[in-house]
Here is the input.
Amino acid sequence: MFSGFLFLNTITDQLTFSTDNIVLGIVCGPIMVAVYTVGSNFKNYFMAFSTSASGVFAPQINKIIADDCPQKELDDIFIRIGRIQFYIVTLILTGYIFFGKQFIRLWVGNSYDDAYIIGLMLMLSVYVPCFQNIGLEIQKAKNMHKARSIVYLLIAIVNVIITIPFSIWLKGIGAALATLICMFFGTVVFMNIYNYKKIGLDIPGFWKSIARILPGIIIPVITGIVIMLFIDINSYWTLLLAILAYCAVFFASVWFISMNKYEKELFTTPIKRIINKLRKKTV
Here is the structure.
């Protein structure tokens, strides 16, 4: 049963995001499928950056549950890792908002402008799950992921139903919008309630902790707006410089405003080790 529901999770995830291409191929033709695929690729890269981190902590979560440790330990790891993932996915999402359109135009031309909106909607559809996916590892460790599998199956079915009229209405953007709506109610609304009521995770505490990060995002957002308004990004070099400048401002802002001691030590500890090794070699 355990592996069966994991398999169902995998199938429904694939079905949810492959439905749009199939429907668009029937309703709109291959050109729109190509545009949609460009936007969808950004969502795939976006997810890859966050999901790799959650699997690393699966053994630790299993040990906490096997040792019957207090629930607070699960809450702590859920919030701690969620914050780190939030920094990563928010940097990528906001960076895409400010520079994604210019990149797509440089890459495949102006005729693929819809791919920018499609990519943004699909990234938004997985944004919250990307910094809450440690909750899935906790569900699996407790063997309580059945509800997620069933809900994701319902999402996939509803997505098929509403993608057809949405695709006729707005083509690729409509298909992405249908996915965004379904994912919001399933992965954000339901999963937060389920993790709070059934899994016992401190969801209010999680969101309060995330909210404390937000002031550090204000300066980078203003910087991104200024770059969009006043810098003409017409080459890969100017795009690269703009992205590097944005990343530097983002990192500096969250370092001084948002990050706690633990998060700062994740960066400073490896740097100190490297410096100490270099000093020993020079002595």
Observations:
- The chain has two domains: 2-211, 214-283.
- The mean pLDDT is 89.
